[in-house]
Amino acid sequence: MDTEYTSARKILKHQKDIDELDQKYKERLQSFTPEALKGKDMLTASHFSGYFAAILIFYVVLSVFFGAFFRTRTIHQPEETNQA
Fold this sequence. Notes:
Elements (H helix, E strand, L loop, with lengths): L1 H10 L3 H17 L2 H4 L7 H25 L15
């Protein structure tokens, strides 16, 4: 991110654009501080169990759909009666 900031700062010519870039850069730096990232771990047990449950529900619904669509159907033909 620092290299992009320095290269963009070299390219810009107007002071207004440079000030805007500096402001946005400072805002982005604050979002990467350890205090801002605290409590935002995405690999917790509750997240994992939620994703796992969503995957299981998806496959249950998918299997019910395929089971209903591809179920075997028996064709009933009238039986012939022999009268002799």
